[in-house]
Input
Amino acid sequence: MSGERAAGSDAARDGGDAVVQVRGLRCAYGETTILRDLDFDVNRREIFVILGGSGCGKSTLLRNLIGIVDAAEGTIRIAGHDLVSAAGDERRSLLKSFGVMFQSGALFSSMTLAQNIALPLEEFTDLPPSAIRRVAEQKLALVNLTGYEEHHPAEISGGMCKRVGVARALALDPPLLFLDEPSAGLDPISAADLDQLILELRDSLGTTIVIVTHELDSIFNIADRCIVLDKARQTIVAEGHPKDLRDTSEDPFVHAFFNREATVKEPC
Output
């Protein structure tokens, strides 16, 4: 991996407590490479953020990490199992070990909030309907939406839809959670509320959380560590705590990104 690491990042990447281990990953669509030479770890109970400007490949990397798009090269080990090579029952079991909240919430508009949360439980468990209903109610309570079980997505705010998306991602009690642009489109108060929820999930449930975003407002407060992707170089150009990278990075692109400076010409 080219680029820089803030002090302490290498120690965090010794692999001893890693939930996710990415090595030599190349993300591509056909013959078109989007990202290459990606190496990073996500450690247990960590809030790990994937940052970068628009079009740098954040969403593509997420699709590789959750198995929607197959990696062109490299390995993605989740809890010690390689998602890239896994097949059949092993892959199915691996996909159940993490939850995903997609950018828009991806809720089904014709279903109630409780029914949306019930979907993974109906698909992956043998629980009776009454038990599934209780779990759905518990997950809505976890994101402070008790009493909204019979509402439909169109009847609640965008911030509430995000929370329901988180609740559904937690339906199977996964130890690992992926959040795609959780604060995108939210007003400052709703975004702050969601940040607090993310911290509570990490602290109370011990959930490891990977967040994909380009927004900085909340990252300085909730991230334990981050990587920065650069579209021009097609790889990771920095890794560390966001505040350390903001204050100490000597990379012109990284410095400009964290300090909200005028666009600079990115190195080739």
